[in-house]
Structures are given as structure tokens and as C-alpha cells.
Specification:
168 residues; alpha+beta; Nuclear Transport Factor 2, Chain: A; globular; eight-stranded mixed beta sheet
């Protein structure tokens, strides 16, 4: 009983900034685990009932993905320079490379994170250098467990999107 009360008090005292920082840190731990080839570490971000939704494809469950991740973990390393980071308002502040969290909406013990997942590179367009990002907009649903924030649902909102200087 004492443990349940302590956990409840802990969950109620977390600020939105703390939640955002914990979610960004969870993404980074997952990227780090992928870079090490650590399937368990990479999947620790997700709940057992996690599901991934991509436009035009059938939903994929953790149970369905886990054998593939374990089989292919050596080839799943993130590109060099990838990181998870907080940068809101990408249209004004620009894009980066990796998992760019730009919005987190907390509702009690759940949260929704909006991210750009992809790479930004300098490209010359019509004689002018621009920052061009290619990747996917994603929405992840998170829940607060006793030990950490864990991702329950991963949704790709766009695929192979291109932004120039943070704009469509």
C-alpha cells in the first residue's frame, strides 16, 4: 500500500518540462541501444502492447516486430550524428538530424509527442544554400508506468516528406 501511494504521488508531481525531458531521453536511450546492437535496450522504450501504424500498411505489433528486430539488429544502427532532441517550432527554428521532438502534450499519466524523424543537409537550390530535411512526421503516444515513460503507439503521419528551411 505504501508503495502504491508513493508511486501515485510521484506521478502527480511531474511537470510537463520533466515529462518532455524524460521522453527525449527515452528516445536517445533507444538510439544508443540501436547503435550498440542491443535489441532489448532498443525495445525497452515500448510497452508490451505497443503498435506501429504507417499509412498504407497493416498495423504492426511489438510481438510481430520483436523477432525481426532481434534478427536484424546489426543492420538497424542509426546514421552517424543522429540524436534525440527538443526543438519546437521547426518552421522558425529549423530542423535537425535524428528525432526532433517539437511538441509534447501531457494529459495526466499519458502524453503525445510529435516528432520529425529524419536528416537535414545543406543543399543548393537555384543558386542558394538551404537546409533540406527528409523524413517522416510522427506521433507517439506515451504512458507513465511505475518506472518510466513508455511508448504505447507509434504513428507515421507522413513518409518521405521534404522540408526546405523548415517549410513545405
Amino acid at each position: 500500500m505504501r508503495l502504491a501511494i508513493a508511486a501515485l504521488l510521484f506521478l502527480q508531481t511531474v511537470s510537463p518540462v520533466q515529462v518532455r525531458n524524460e521522453i527525449v531521453a527515452a528516445y536517445q536511450r533507444s538510439l544508443d541501444a540501436l547503435a550498440r546492437g542491443d535489441a532489448d535496450g532498443a525495445m525497452s522504450i515500448d510497452t508490451p502492447d505497443w503498435v506501429s501504424i504507417t499509412p498504407g500498411q497493416a498495423p504492426r505489433t511489438r510481438a510481430g516486430m520483436e523477432p525481426l528486430i532481434r534478427r536484424d539488429i546489426a543492420s538497424m544502427k542509426p546514421p552517424a550524428g543522429w540524436a534525440a532532441f527538443w526543438r519546437p517550432d521547426y518552421e522558425r527554428n529549423g530542423t535537425g538530424t535524428g528525432i526532433q521532438v517539437y511538441d509534447v502534450d501531457m494529459q495526466g499519466n499519458s502524453a503525445t509527442a510529435l516528432c520529425l524523424v529524419g536528416s537535414t543537409k545543406a543543399e543548393t537550390i537555384a543558386g542558394t544554400t538551404h537546409q533540406v530535411w527528409r523524413g517522416s512526421h510522427e506521433r507517439d503516444s506515451w504512458i507513465r508506468t511505475e518506472h518510466a515513460w513508455n511508448r504505447r503507439k507509434h504513428e507515421k503521419l507522413t513518409i518521405n516528406e521534404r522540408l526546405v528551411d523548415g517549410k513545405h
